[in-house]
Amino acid sequence: MDILLEEEQITIEVKMTRPDLSDGGIGDQSIMDIAHSESQAMACCRFAIT
């Protein structure tokens, strides 16, 4: 969990891609984040540094 807005019950996840992290790897991380979240909503952002 990167940012938690407790009152709103919103979690914000930020993922940075890298050459050794596949789309599936990011998906797996996101699934784990959702499974461990107690929020009512989650926003995920993914970015790459080139």
Tell me about this structure.
The chain is an alpha+beta fold and 50 residues long. It has one domain. Helices cover 26% and strands 38% of the residues. It has 1 helix and 3 strands. Strands 1-2-3 form a 3-stranded mixed β-sheet, with helices on one face. β1 and β2 form a beta hairpin. The chain starts with a strand and ends with a strand. The relative contact order is 0.33. The model has no long low-confidence stretch (mean pLDDT 86).
Total helical segments: 1
Largest sheet: 3 strands, mixed
Q: Please, what is the average pLDDT? A: 86
- Distance between the amino and carboxyl termini: 24 Å
How much of the sequence lies in strands comes to 35-45%
> How much helical structure, as a percent, in the residues?
25-40%
Biggest sheet: strand arrangement: 1-2-3
Topology, number of strands = 3
Report the structural category: alpha+beta
Number of self-contained structural domains: 1
Low-confidence parts, pLDDT < 50 over ≥5 residues?
Answer: none
Shape: elongated
H/E order of the elements?
A: EEHE
| CA-based gyration radius | 12 Å
Short description, anyone?
With 50 residues, the chain is an alpha+beta fold. The protein is 26% helix and 38% strand. It has one domain.
List keywords for this structure.
three-stranded mixed beta sheet; 50 residues; alpha+beta
